[in-house]
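Run: sequence + 4'-deoxy-4'-aminopyridoxal-5'-phosphate -> complex structure.
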Amino acid sequence: MNTSPARTALRESLDVERLRRDFPILHQTVYDGKPLAYLDNAATSQKPKAVIEALTEYYTRYNANVHRALHYLGEQATARYEEARGKVAAFIGAPGVANIVFTRGTTESINLVAYAWGRTHVGQGDVILATGMEHHSNLVPWQILAKEKGAELKLVPVLEDGTLDQAAFASLLSSRVKLVAVTQMSNVLGTVNPVQAMAEAAHGVGAKILVDAAQSVPHMPVNVQELNADFLAFSSHKMCGPTGVGVLYAREEIFNAMPPFMGGGEMISKVHDDHATWADLPYKFEAGTPNIADVIAFGAAVDYLSAIGMDPIHAYEQALTAYTVERLEEIPHVRIFGRAPERGGAVSFEVEGIHPHDLSQYVDQQGVAIRAGHLCAQPLMRRLGVPAVSRASVYFYNVEREIEQLAEAIRKAQHFFGHG
Ligand code: PMP
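>> structure
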């Protein structure tokens, strides 16, 4: 019987077995009767019944376009759509709904900033500072912008333990830096970056900071005002909500100083033959019919997470992550990437002698869903000196037995492939 501190902490936190009943998808066997262990939550999370029902309810009871309709269904849809915006604003501690723009996801949110803000605020000789652990979606848009504008893109290096080189960050900051783009939690290393301190430093040289919160908002309490973020982006689908919805938070004066991203219906105030004026925030950045059903169901996801509480979710995941690391470390020839003291539940590793794709396929046959590949972080893979990694990533509905199932599957894989 294992009585590690991680296990004790788990016992004392969430009633996970009760929460698991809210997720129909978790209760199935795959292949020849293997219980499913879904450990690919950094890619996307599963959805509770409340979210699935919110979608069904929308389409069966009040499907209508929002904002323009002067009829009952349209008013219902608009009210619920705008309610979701209010829930999101409260969830991340935004001052109000004007700070919350709905997009298709983190990727679109970051591209919105790169196109609308970047094109007007970044010029020849300016510097955009990203980091060596960014997801491609917080890197490629800046590469495109830098190329278009003759600006320079520099990356804060990643240290051996998986943290950012803060001394290098300090020395890279200068009045030429217009934007610092940093992930709050690495989807590969799990590292939680000190974005509050980095925001202060960025502001000190007159730069703005964009926080990629795709992996943080779903897993820990995040308050945009405490962080002092200028921009913050995240996706509904990683936090129990539907795919196809994301959020871009920005400070109001920054949104106001930005031209629109896309033109069309909804985002205008007056349209003349040859020009137009823009709608108030946040509508200026929401051209066309939005993803109404999924935004409303995202509101249900925010309610669901809020009812559990982000503090208990975070505490439970911290313990489960520690447990995962412990179990993996017990296995010979397993190496974990990233040793940051502050970390989240994405645990990347390699098993000596087995390619990550072969490993993930093998453990999948044992019912365990993990991810393998470059994890949309090719520059980081190069830094780690590997073409790919395997990654297990937990959410609050995961339990110890699923971690044990993973560990057992890895040992079996070592036997099968003749390593270890
Ligand atoms: N940033 C990070 C850190 C991520 O993990 C992801 C998703 N893997 C993204 C950005 C992109 O999110 P999306 O695909 O939902 O746009």
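>> summary
The radius of gyration is 22 Å. The first strand starts at residue 29 and ends at 30.
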